[in-house]
Each structure stands twice: as C-alpha cells, then as structure tokens.
Structure prediction request, 120 residues.
Amino acid sequence: MDSGIEEWQHSVLSDVSAEPSSSRHDGITSRLATAAIKFFGLLLEHACLEASPDLLRSLEREYGYLQLWCDGYGVPSGELDALLAESRRLRLATYRFLVSVCRTLADRKSRLGFIIGTLR
Prediction:
C-alpha cells in the first residue's frame, strides 16, 4: 500500500477523540473532513494511473463536491464545529455522514476500494 495512505490511516486511528475541542480548528468535524479530503486526494492520485477516463472524471467531480461542502459550511475554519456544538441531533447526523464518507473511501468493495486493491 502507498505510504501516504498508510500515514493517513495511522493518523486517523491514533486520533479517535470525539470530544468537543477547545480549538475551533481541530474539532472532530474538521479533522474527519480534512482526513477524508486528504485520503480522497491520495486515492485520486492512484486512480489517475489505473482508472478509465470516465471513472476518473466522476471521482474528481465527487472530490470537488466534498471540498465544496466543506468550504461552504466552514469546516476547515471550525465554523461547523462551533454550530454543531449547539445541536446534539445535528452533530450526530453530521458525524454519521462524515464517517460514512470515510468508510466508503476505505471500503474495498466500493469503486475507490477496488482501485486501491488493484494497486497492491
């Protein structure tokens, strides 16, 4: 497996705290979304070597949507973490969404997981 992907996996596994952060920039939402974007970017680097042009375009579009979602809700700056601190229901729904995205990215059965598997 690529060392960049292994580093990402290690960083995610070693930072499992779900407690609200004292810093707006390192809340769990910011960390999860940043990790998902970084991992997706690593997968795209590999996908460009193996994937068909149509699949690569589709993956790049989805990557762009994730980045737009994060930017639109102020995820990198911690704005979304601050808003989520006020609503337990919304916070849990957002966490479920981000965990689902991360699982999909890492799932061997998904299209991205298939690409990772072919690169081993």
Residues 8 and 39 are 7 Å apart (CA to CA). Residues 33-119 form one domain. The chain has one domain: 33-119.
